[in-house]
Amino acid sequence: IEPTGECKVSERYIEPTIIDSPKMESQMMNDEIFGPLFPIFGYTDFEKVVEYINSKPKPLALYYFGNKDSKEYQALKTRTSSGALLLNDALLHFANSNLSFGGVGYSGIGVVHGKDGFREMVHMKPITERGTYNGFPF
Description:
- This protein is an alpha/beta fold.
- The chain has four helices and eight strands.
- The strands form four sheets. The protein has a two-stranded antiparallel sheet with strand order 1-2.
């Protein structure tokens, strides 16, 4: 663990923390992460990265730091599924209330925020009304 800030257990507070190459069998890598903990991995074969992502339940978010025109980023866009895919960012998709925020499959069904979040939380009740013709309902 790369110490990047404070951890106050009594206040349930953790500053953003980078975790360099955690073990794949660790609890962190097998449970969804809710908090400012960022596992970081290097790679030599990106095909194995895509295979690993696709072998696990779909993540709530997938973060890629690099060039938007890279073959790696294009592979993440077209060959993986996640609630969100972020390029060079790890926060703005949640902070922007106009974007929908939600998961796929194991990481959640449905969305919050924005118009999509509103539609998710309400039932849009359709009402159809017809007039009469010479007093006779049709």
